[in-house]
Amino acid sequence: MLHIGCHLSAAKGFMAMGRQALSISADTFQFFTRNPRGGNAKALDPQDAQRLRELMEGHAFAPVLAHAPYTLNGCSADEAVRSFALRTMQDDLQRMEYLPGNMYNFHPGSHVGQGVERGIEQIAAMLDAMPLQDIATTVLLETMAGKGSEVGGTFEELRAILEAARCGDRLGICLDTCHVYDAGYDIVGDLDGVLARFDAVLGLERLKAIHLNDSKNPFASHKDRHEKIGQGSLGLEALTRIVRHPLLRHLPFYLETPNELDGYAAEIALLREAAAS
Ligand code: FE
Ligand code: FE
Ligand code: ZN
Fold this sequence. Notes:
Low-confidence stretches: none
Shape: globular
Bound molecules: fe (iii) ion, zinc ion
Number of strands: 12
Strand order of the largest sheet: 1-2-3-4-6-8-9-12
Strand content: 15-25%
Number of helices: 9
Distance between the termini: 11 Å
Helix content: 25-40%
Largest sheet: 8 strands, parallel, barrel
């Protein structure tokens, strides 16, 4: 059974997302913890969180994935931006305690000219300020396309962050199919080879979630623009091999394709059929 969902708007609260997921035959979803461009999160309603937990249990949901705002950059050259990132992640993780057992994904950051090594140190320092031992949420680093000065465009950079952080062994990875293909990992022509590489560098046991996206750009373009499933450079066949792969099919898949709800419903139906056949 394929665990799949899509990115949903959190504007109407947790339960609304749970119901929306059910309405499109999803059994998980992703949401932004706050405005993707940053800013304050709205007040959390513990009863709303509790109702979602019951819905998830009743419908055998896979863990849901909270996504940090894009503006969160723990390796900015600007100390104010770094401390905003730290406070935002702390606050997000505190709020996630109302939904125990789920996951929180963030983009490692952009070193903006400071160099990858400095960036890695700063990201690890931010993670070390999180109570990772004491929370019921698994924090995930996302694989990036390597655009601009992004850190995390290679498996080796992600490993360096995990090694530099004291609580590195508590962290997981979210693999974004558009990002890794744009970064130069050929998951279309050599999926087994890329997974072997992932296993050698990071360990497949670290892989906790997949962002399932097609890409608007060609292989190794370092661009990061998501396309609808089957309409980009990865194509439906390659994406089907991913959801069916014996090393991946147990994982939860989250669509971040450019769609409204009906488009997501159609992609979920398509992928469920492809996975079952
Ligand atoms: Fe992301
Ligand atoms: Fe993503
Ligand atoms: Zn992306």
